[in-house]
């Protein structure tokens, strides 16, 4: 019998799958992994589906969902070590820690999704990323291409190969390592991360001197900024930033700047280590006239054009059509390829 995936994707796509398994412990995850191996079906681990687009109405395989809860802190002399069930909601963890005076996650307030996915995605915002605090990730190995039975394992921070929104779990271990628990180390002593001007501006507007801001002040500011900028997936289906910000060669950036001298751009190394220039995808989309525009039941958010939305009853294919039309327009106008940040399933 097929299972609805409507509650498991923030785009609100009415998709379903052949089978849905929720695991509540490491033992249940191991059992689920054994079932995956013998089923002969494709599978995908998901959390809240806040970075996933179900392209087709039916996924002919098994969706595995981490439902392990529990936050287990161990207070140490200078820091707190916390083992967290991967099914916990990320922002609940941030609230829990900030409220207890344990620091490091406050800039990542209100990012949707689960704790397990935070370690897969290396979520980041406002000058911080999950990898800054992750010390270990536990899970179950289930490799479809090997004869080995599924087995339990863990990876220390350095083994997770964290980079910008990337990790070994998105690459070599994609769909092969089912995350069960994530370990974080948080600080007792607070030092605000203020590298983003928007946070400073918001604090000043609230009458708070940025250097004296508390972690709760930062959390409050980040939540307010995000609520102003991004549509709430509970009200309007979306998966956050749909495209990654492209990094182009300095030559291409210079050529575009001749026509668009106001184009925002930032020097940054490209993936291959060569010199690069990052251009906000939102700016490119806006220049192509897509801000606030719709195509069928799929739309481009009027405040943040990097966010594509389900205007109500859109299919995965309708979102894909909008995305590919935008990609083609951006390529035609600027010669830049936009790559999705969202995972297509
Ligand atoms: C409004 C909005 C704002 C957002 N803002 C940000 C932001 O500021 N910064 C940011 O980094 N992201 C942002 N995102 C993206 C999203 O919140 C993150 O990618 C989040 O980590 C996804 O969590 P999830 O539980 O929904 O994972 P899913 O979307 O379900 O899955 C994401 C990936 O993780 C894998 N995965 C999930 N669970 C497991 C598991 N247990 N084991 C192994 N693999 C697993 C999936 O296969 C998939 O590849 C935003 C999304 C929305 C909707």
What does this protein look like?
- This protein is an alpha+beta fold.
- The two termini are 20 Å apart.
- The longest helix has 19 residues, at 316-334.
- 26% of the residues lie in helices and 27% in strands.
- It is globular and about 60 Å long.
- It folds into 3 domains: 3-66, Uridine Diphospho-n-acetylenolpyruvylglucosamine Reductase, domain 2, CATH 3.30.43; 71-206 and 220-224, 2-Layer Sandwich (Uridine Diphospho-n-acetylenolpyruvylglucosamine Reductase, domain 3), CATH 3.30.465.10; 237-344, Uridine Diphospho-n-acetylenolpyruvylglucosamine Reductase, domain 1, CATH 3.90.78.
- Residues 10, 44-52, 66, 86, 111-114, 116-118, 120-121, 123-125, 165, 169, 178-179, 230, 233, 238-240, 343 line the site of flavin-adenine dinucleotide.
- Flavin-adenine dinucleotide is lined by residues 10, 44-52, 66, 86, 111-114, 116-118, 120-121, 123-125, 165, 169, 178-179, 230, 233, 238-240, 343.
């Amino acid at each position: 019998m097929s299972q609805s995936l409507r509650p498991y994707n923030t785009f609100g796509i009415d998709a379903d799958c052949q089978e849905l398994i929720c695991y509540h412990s490491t033992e249940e995850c191991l059992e689920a992994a054994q079932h995956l191996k013998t089923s002969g079906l494709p599978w995908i681990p998901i959390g809240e589906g806040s970075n996933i687009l179900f392209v087709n109405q039916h996924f002919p395989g098994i969706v595995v969902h981490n439902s392990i809860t529990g936050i287990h802190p161990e207070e140490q002399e200078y820091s707190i070590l916390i083992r967290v069930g991967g099914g916990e909601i990320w922002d609940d963890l941030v609230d829990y820690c900030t409220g207890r005076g344990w620091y490091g996650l406050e800039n990542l307030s209100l990012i949707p999704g689960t704790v397990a996915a935070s370690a897969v995605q290396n979520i980041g915002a406002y000058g911080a990323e999950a990898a800054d605090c992750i010390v270990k990730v536990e899970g179950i190995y289930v490799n479809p291409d090997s004869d080995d039975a599924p087995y339990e394992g863990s990876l220390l921070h350095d083994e997770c190969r964290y980079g910008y929104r990337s990790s070994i779990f998105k690459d070599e271990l994609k769909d092969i390592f089912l995350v069960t628990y994530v370990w974080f180390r948080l600080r007792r002593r607070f030092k605000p991360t203020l590298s983003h001007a928007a946070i400073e501006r918001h604090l000043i507007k609230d009458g708070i001197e940025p250097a004296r801001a508390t972690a709760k002040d930062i959390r409050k500011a980040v939540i307010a900024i995000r609520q102003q900028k991004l549509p709430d997936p509970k009200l309007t289906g979306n998966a956050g930033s749909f495209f990654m910000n492209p990094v182009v060669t300095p030559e291409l950036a210079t050529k575009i700047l001749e026509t668009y001298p106001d184009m925002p751009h930032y020097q940054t190394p490209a993936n291959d280590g060569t010199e690069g220039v990052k251009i906000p995808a939102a700016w490119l989309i806006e220049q192509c006239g897509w801000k606030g525009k719709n195509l069928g039941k799929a739309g481009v958010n009027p405040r943040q054009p990097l966010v594509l939305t389900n205007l109500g009853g859109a299919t995965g294919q309708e979102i894909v059509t909008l995305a590919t039309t935008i990609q083609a327009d951006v390529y035609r106008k600027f010669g830049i390829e936009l790559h999705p940040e969202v995972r297509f399933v």
